[in-house]
Amino acid sequence: MVLLAVATACQPYVFEPAEFNRDRADFGRQPADRSEVDVCYATNSTSAQDLLAMAEAECAKYGKAARYRYSDVLECPMATPLRARFICERG
After folding, report:
1. pLDDT digit string, tens, across residues 18-49
2. CA separation for the pair 11, 87 (Å, rounded)
């Protein structure tokens, strides 16, 4: 059971830092628009294609395409310490 939790914790995901902030006006709802997407990941379990596919899927919800911007460290939780930022832009 613990091994399963650790293995799934390393999977990449779209990061929403204020996702659990109940004081937000749009708490629990899909954003009306998106200009950027952050994907948290670990290098040992994620390829560049995986990151782009996740960002593309998220940007596509708003009729936009993802363009890689940069990566940095320690902006995401420790199980997935790397962050890739993508810009969502109209094609």
Report:
1. 777 788 887 888 888 999 999 999 988 899 99
2. 21
Residue 68 in contact with residue 52, Cβ under 8 Å? yes
Could you identify the residue written with the tokens 């990941």? 41
Instruction: Compute CA distances 41 → 8, 17, 26, 32, 91, whole Å.
Output: 11, 14, 26, 25, 26
Query: How far apart are alpha carbons 66 and 37 in whole angstroms?
Result: 8
From residue 22, how far is each of 18, 26, 28, 36 by CA, in Å? Answer: 9, 9, 8, 22
pTM of this structure: 0.81
What CA–CA distance (Å, rounded) separates 13 from 39?
A: 5
Measured between alpha carbons, how far is 67 from 88 in angstroms, rounded to an integer? 7
